[in-house]
Write a structure and sequence with these properties.
about 250 residues, alpha/beta, 7-stranded parallel β-sheet
Length: about 250
């Protein structure tokens, strides 16, 4: 397990956007960031789920969150630009960006993989984070020390049979993170890192391993320390690295 104990109010006054914030690891990260003082922007495709997270944040007395419904399958440049304009008008900067949303696609041999599904998985998991990052870079540059987190997987650095486009998309996102980390290292205060969550008790894990007892896996809440470390000031200057959450 990644060893880090977050000081109370670690993320005070930070504005942090989380994709896929309505469920699983993204939901846990949103609640945890809010608990630590951040203003969180909840982005995802299912409004009811985002509203439920919003309500929990509100009921807990944390800093008020914001909701931005967006389907990464279909979002075009204009929608990312609109997102940036709204955040600029509301906050003027962005301190954290967690690229968390992704889809699994098919678990099947390459010989059987549908090209339509391949394109969809590559788009949601790799191209959409690229488009969003590009649109939000000026806002991240306006932060005193912004942190971008890309979410990979163990199959994002070592391909495994039947993981198809999911594995390829995670390799792609690791490449994107490495390129961006080098590009920003000497030109900005932005840090760019990769988290591999490891086996975590979520819907996606259950979909990938239907026969597994979910209780054997850690919960999303259990793996938050590495997110806390990378979003807070203790990781200033740490960039281009890959972290295992477990
Ligand atoms: P999850 O429970 O399935 O949650 C995925 C989130 O992404 C959901 O909030 C989902 O929204 C959102 N999402 C999916 N498609 C979207 C789209 N087109 N537009 C906007 N949002 C979309 O998965 P998870 O296990 O928490 O996974 C979070 C991240 O960790 C992913 O990047 C995954 O690859 C990675 N990861 C997970 C594990 C694991 O064991 N759980 C292991 C390694 C890596 P809806 O709920 O509305 O569909």
């Amino acid at each position: 397990m990644f060893n880090y104990t977050a000081p109370e109010k670690l993320l005070n006054n930070r504005v942090i956007l989380i994709t896929g914030a309505g469920d699983g690891i993204g939901r846990a990260a949103a609640l945890d960031c809010a608990r630590l003082g951040a203003t969180v922007i909840l982005l995802g495709r299912t409004l009811e789920k985002l509203e439920a997270v919003y309500d929990t944040i509100e009921a807990s007395g944390y800093s008020q969150a914001a909701i931005f419904p967006l389907d990464l399958r279909s979002a075009k440049d204009e929608q990312y630009i609109k997102l940036a304009q709204i955040l600029k008008a509301e906050f003027g900067h962005l301190d954290g960006l967690i690229h968390n949303a992704s889809i699994l696609g098919q678990r099947t041999p390459i010989s059987n993989y549908e090209s339509r599904t391949w394109n969809l998985v590559m788009h949601v998991n790799a191209t959409a984070p690229f488009m969003m990052t590009q649109a939000l870079l000026p806002l991240l540059e306006a932060s005193k020390d912004a942190s971008i987190i890309f979410t990979s997987s163990s199959v994002g650095s070592q391909g495994k049979a039947y993981w198809g486009a999911y594995s390829a998309s995670k390799f792609a996102i690791e490449g994107l993170a490495q390129v961006l980390a080098e590009e920003t290292e000497n030109t900005s205060k932005i840090r760019v890192n990769i988290i591999n969550p490891g086996a975590t008790r979520t819907n996606m894990r259950a979909q990938a391993y239907p026969g597994e007892n979910p209780a054997v896996n850690l919960t999303p809440e259990d793996i938050m320390p590495v997110y806390q470390y990378l979003l807070g000031p203790d990781s200033c200057g740490v960039t281009g690295q890959r972290f295992n959450a477990q």
